[in-house]
Automatic annotation (TrEMBL):
Gene designation: pheT
Reaction catalysed by this enzyme: tRNA(Phe) + L-phenylalanine + ATP = L-phenylalanyl-tRNA(Phe) + AMP + diphosphate + H(+)
CDD domains to which the protein is assigned, alphabetical: PheRS_beta_core (cd00769), tRNA_bind_bactPheRS (cd02796)
Organism: Pediococcus pentosaceus CGMCC 7049
This protein's name: Phenylalanine--tRNA ligase beta subunit
Keywords from the UniProt entry: Aminoacyl-tRNA synthetase, ATP-binding, Cytoplasm, Ligase, Magnesium, Metal-binding, Nucleotide-binding, Protein biosynthesis, RNA-binding, tRNA-binding
GO molecular function: ATP binding; catalytic activity, acting on a protein; magnesium ion binding; phenylalanine-tRNA ligase activity; transferase activity; tRNA binding
Length: 809
């Protein structure tokens, strides 16, 4: 909420700088986003009075203005605003002045005519578009007669731009600080003062003989939807602009002035935190007002002229069954206050906060009123707010307040009473406060206290305006923050310390990141929420999707079931910025629905590579990534984490989003723990990326898999011997099958087998291919003998011939 320092000064004796006050608020109550002044860096901007306005001889839209700016002689300014006219009080930026964005204004000529300054719109001196009155949205600002400005007066002072505005970030539990009333009481407690908060009542001379209950009635069947609902009416009003002081107050708070009725409702909302809504009474006469869920197939046009399809559970206010407002969110066009309105009715209510929040979220209508209803309303100030609003409207519109208040519901809340012991306060806070000091703190907060001197306990009665306090812990927090967090004694922890260490799972996850980065991949972090389509990509099996009931956007409406889609988004982001070579990995959780409130969370690790992993240099070209590069990364990773089981790869032709001929499942002892392969060209086209290879592994399964006992092997000091062999084999036989046969053969000294050539083509029988392997033999204890190597090598050849029907070339 935007707090005006000058407005606060009406209720409190503020003798400290605004920034110091903001620091006290932040240390004690809620976070402060900023302390700003609208006149920051503005200079030499004064009120001017237009004496004469004539057409520019060489332009169809420029005007030559003679302006009195409080100097001995008027100055001439050329202005192109469509609403410029003689006898107006306007904003003038003099020669040498500074306006918004530190722009300097100088004397100049406009189409040959000298101009000694600039007549400004509100936007040009720093006001945002959304707070400028609509009459001046496309032109210069004209001071109204009740501003009582004179030529030469400072514009910043006239508009209240010299006021410091403290912008607070109100937490959900402190809805009371969404009002000047709540802030005045809170800051009074911080500064140890009493808030001088004034309340206006309807005066006798403002009352009418007519009774509102004769015009309309209210019937509310379900008390929970609107625990409090009251109406007051003002007749014979004249709709006009609101007083100048009220307009400037609203603009500083970020609200656009509309008219003398709507502005009062907004002012009361800022003052009391009580949203109000004004209806045209003539549209409601003889009807019954009610509050209830909308029901099926209800369409409604809101004040922003948007036609909305309401959900059955959305709360609406109806007149004889016809919707006239979305309760607590926005009114309707049919009953809005217009220039022709003569009689109005003002609604003050408290609605179910949960229903209001859901309606506002669904329809994306986060109005000032909805924000307050969501966080709660002060039951104790509603009557004051409604009466003051009626009094101000009557005063500003020359109307009369009709007798009586029409009540639909009037639930009363009793103040909370909580008992707490002095010993408990001192034990939890580590203080040595006396009972007198604690009573003084509660008194500053406006809480009444009954002290049991014998038991040293306090019975604390909390006023209704602090509806966030219910239990002992809430009182402890109040004592701590008013006493001052900085004043709490500093103590060291007691007890035997324990040595912190990572769990086995945490160690392996950290090791995983180290391995991936060592293999040339860069860590990425993606959102856990994504679209429904992306969440289900690359997933096999019957996994239940977890959708968000109230997603922030359509791009974040489901929990992810894979990591790859997020990595592809990252690659697309880089590709759009001409980064062609990208190698990323991510370690994180995926989520599977299980029919329970808490979805199943599984740790995964995934990678995505496009382009080349090897940078181009003077002696080497870029090498595009292939399936085998990604397979090598996965193999090296599984080797480094030392899984003890047998790792194998099986072709996978039906995984959604993957190339059917270049994808394989990764198996550990026959159990699928992930997959590797190329993204399908159509999927790559959807993401607007080039050929990309990916892998994704179930890290949870890897963590819980049996591990090899890792140790160092002695490096042999004896030479190694190699043997090469080329075999002719059926085209359907894979390298893995050949290696399996070799590894199954009993070998004492074979330490490495490497495939170094694959050939298919001329001079080979149809359906055959040639594979060339190099065998490396070495003994750590002795020099190898030729006969021993020949014997082992012969056994391998024999097994290959018998089991795979190979032919040695």
């Amino acid at each position: 909420m935007k707090l005006s320092y000058k407005w606060l000064s009406k209720y409190l004796e503020l003798d400290l700088e605004p920034k110091d006050l903001a620091e006290k608020i932040e240390r004690t109550a809620v976070e402060v986003d900023s302390v700003t002044r609208l006149d920051y860096k503005l200079k030499k901007i004064v009120v001017g009075h237009t004496l004469e306005v004539t057409e520019h001889p060489d332009s169809d839209h420029l005007h030559i203005c003679q302006v009195d700016v409080g100097e001995e002689e008027p100055i001439q300014i050329v202005c192109g605003a469509p609403n410029i006219a003689a006898d107006q009080d306007v904003i003038v930026a003099l020669h040498g002045s500074r306006i918004k964005d530190n722009v300097k204004i100088k004397r100049s000529k406009m189409r040959g005519v000298p101009s000694n300054g600039m007549i400004c719109a509100l936007q040009e001196i720093g006001y945002p578009d959304n707070v400028v009155p609509k009459d001046y949205a496309d032109g210069i600002y004209v001071f109204p007669a009740d501003s009582h400005v004179k030529p030469g007066d400072s514009v910043m002072e006239a508009l209240g731009m010299d006021d410091d505005v403290i912008d607070t970030s109100v937490t959900p539990n402190r809805g009371d600080m969404f009002s000047m009333n709540g802030n005045a009481h809170e800051i009074a407690a911080i500064l140890d003062q009493k808030a001088n908060f004034e309340v206006l009542k309807v005066q006798d001379e403002q009352k009418s003989a007519d009774t509102l209950a004769d015009q309309i009635k209210v019937e509310i069947d379900e008390q929970d939807v609107a625990p409090v609902y009251k109406l007051m009416a003002i007749e014979n009003v004249k709709i006009a602009p609101s007083p100048f002081w009220l307009q400037t107050t609203l603009m500083k708070a970020g609200i656009r002035p509309i008219n003398n009725v709507v502005d009062v409702t907004n002012y009361i909302m800022l003052k009391y935190g009580q949203p109000l809504h004004a209806y045209d009474l003539d549209q409601l006469k003889g009807q019954t007002i009610s509050v209830a869920p909308a029901g099926e197939n209800v369409k409604f046009t809101t004040l922003d002229d948007e036609k909305r399809d309401l959900r059955p559970e959305d709360l609406v206010i109806t007149a004889d069954g016809t919707p006239i407002a979305m309760a607590g969110v926005m009114g309707g066009m049919a009953t809005e206050v217009s220039d022709q309105t003569q009689n109005i009715v003002i609604e003050a209510a408290i609605f179910d906060p949960i229903k209001i929040r859901k309606t506002a979220r669904y329809h994306n209508l986060h109005s000032e009123a909805a924000m307050r209803f969501e966080r709660g309303i002060d039951y104790s100030s509603l009557d004051d707010a409604l009466n003051e609003a009626a009094s101000l409207v009557a005063d500003f519109s020359q109307g009369k307040v009709m007798s009586g208040v029409v009540v639909g519901n009037d639930t009363k809340l009793n103040p909370e009473s909580i008992t707490i012991a002095l010993a408990r306060i001192n034990k939890i806070l580590g203080t040595s406060l006396t009972s007198e000091e604690v009573v003084a703190i509660f008194d500053r907060l406006g809480f009444s206290t009954e002290l049991d001197a014998t038991k040293q306990t306090f019975k604390v009665t909390v006023p209704v305006r602090r509806w966030d306090i219910h239990i002992e812990a809430d009182l402890l927090e109040e004592v701590a923050r008013i006493f001052g967090y900085d004043n709490l004694p500093v103590t060291l922890p007691t007890g035997d310390p324990t040595i912190g260490q990572l769990t086995t799972e945490q160690k392996l996850m950290r090791a995983s990141r180290t391995v991936m980065e060592g293999l040339g991949l860069t860590q990425a972090m993606s959102y856990g929420l994504t679209t429904i389509a992306k969440s289900q990509q690359f997933v096999k099996g019957d996994h239940e999707l977890v959708k968000v009931d109230w997603p922030m956007t359509k791009d974040r409406e489901a929990l992810r079931m894979n990591l790859i889609s997020g990595l592809l988004d990252d690659i697309a982001y880089n590709k759009a910025r001409s980064v062609e070579n990208v190698a990323l990995y991510e370690q994180g959780r995926v989520f599977y629905g299980n029919g329970q409130a808490q979805p199943e969370e599984i740790e995964h690790i995934a990678g995505a590579i496009t382009g080349s992993m090897q940078a181009k240099s003077w002696n080497e070209k870029e090498k595009p990534v292939t399936f085998f590069d990604v397979k090598g990364i996965v193999e090296q990773y599984l080797k480094n984490v030392a899984v003890a089981g047998e790792v194998s790869y099986v072709a996978d032709h039906d995984r959604q989003g993957m190339h059917p001929g270049r994808t394989a499942d990764v198996l550990l002892d026959g159990d699928v723990i992930g997959f590797i392969g190329q993204i399908h060209p159509t999927t790559a086209e959807e993401f607007k990326i080039k050929e990309t290879y990916v892998f994704e592994l179930n890290l949870t399964k890897i963590i819980h898999a049996e591990k090899k006992l890792q140790h160092y092997d002695v490096i042999s000091k004896y030479p190694a011997i190699t043997r090469d062999i080329a075999i002719l084999v059926n085209k359907e036989v894979s390298n893995t099958e050949v290696l399996n046969v070799i590894n199954e053969t009993k070998q004492k000294n074979l330490i490495k087998v490497e495939l170094f050539d694959v050939y298919e083509g001329k001079n080979l029988e149809k359906g055959m291919k040639s594979l060339a392997y190099q065998f490396t033999y070495q003994d750590t204890n002795d020099t190898l003998q030729e006969d021993a190597i020949n014997d082992e090598f012969s056994k391998v050849i024999k097994n290959l011939e018998e089991k795979l029907n190979v032919t040695v070339r």
